[in-house]
Amino acid sequence: MSRAHTITDWDPEDRIAWDGGGARIARRNLIWSVVAEHVGFSVWSLWSVMVLFMPENVYGLSTADKFLVAATATLVGALLRLPYTLATARFGGRNWTIFSALVLSVPVIATIVILANPGAPLWVYLVCAAATGFGGGNFASSMTNINAFFPQRLKGWALGVNAGGGNIGVPAVQLVGLLVIAVAGNREPYWVCAVYLVLLVVAGIGAALFMDNLQVPTVDKAAMLAAVRHRQTWLVSLLYIGTFGSFIGFSFAFGQVLQAGFRADGDTAAQASLHAAQIAFIGPLLGSLSRVYGGKLADRLGGGRVTLVTFGGMILGALVLVAGSTIGSGSVPVLVPGFILLFLLSGIGNGSVYKMIPSIFEAEARSMDADEAARARHSRAMSGAVIGIAGAIGGLGGVGINLALRASYQASGAATTAFWLFAGFYLLAAGVTWRVYVRRPTAGAAETGPALVPARG
Predict the structure, then answer these.
(1) Which of 147, 326, 368, 437: CA 20 to 30 A from 54?
(2) What is its main location (predicted)?
């Protein structure tokens, strides 16, 4: 336990060093990064569970208000991904993981207090939801940190495991909520928060004992500014809006859409809440697991092809939701398969898009007139910066989903209009993927993998 926690000379591309102990160090950091990110995701999505058990006559929040609460948490989590991307370079991956886990105890305690004392005005719930959004920022710092630990040939797998393990925090908190309700009843959902206070302490202590800080160039302000000016940053971010934005947006909204569907089918408010909670975790769970396989598929087949097929399937899934939302009573049996398909495909797309990022900048580095060390620094810094930027912008897609659903329910009492918007966006993303990353490139384009060939710019 007295070992040093700072590594000053780290080169994962050195196969001799990797096989001689580097792989073990990287895996140890990956494990605890997943744990901390997992708990962070759970706290970020805490209100997606709480709102299912907040009757309007007790807490005073309408369906539209609850979508606004979800959108607020999503927005803050997305915006914080930019500063969190820089945090690991400034403070160290181990140090920042400890801090980012333990600081989440503040909004968790606040949630307990607020739910135990119903009747607060809407702004109180919005502020508390915004504070849980700090858990969403953990994703960017965790992914940037793990990106630096693993060699190019394993990044798709490592980033997929790290992100997938974090994403499972969404269904995990929903399952914990269902368990608490089964034991304590639906009048005291804030006991879910007590569980996560313990898990936050475990994550913080585990990071302190077993993680390391890397003193190697990763991401800095110069890399972030260069990434902002890079055409590929915005193209990849657009695709990530469609994949991760869908995953996190639907994770927050799925339970509420189901709840509205069960009410339309004749359930009482209490029955609708319980039935929605029993199903809501399935979609995020499958989406989290499929993310790992999306990264592995992209390693083998190329990120472009996998992403294109993903968006083709998501268009179909959105059209199933349109059909389900237009038939009125009895819509739940149609909505559930549509959402499950979207969760599965968005998870695969999350993995494939994030594999594209290091591939793009590895190829760009190979074309540079520089020595091998400079090329490695460029690839690592740009990949880390774009991971953070794309993660932030992708998270904003989740905000858009919740706001679109809120507007659709306010206007017509149904989600049909929002589902049409989602289908249109997936069509746009599929077109961009085909044009930039799959279609044969023009002369001078950078080769980035078996099926991932972006235009230069």
Answers:
(1) 326
(2) membrane
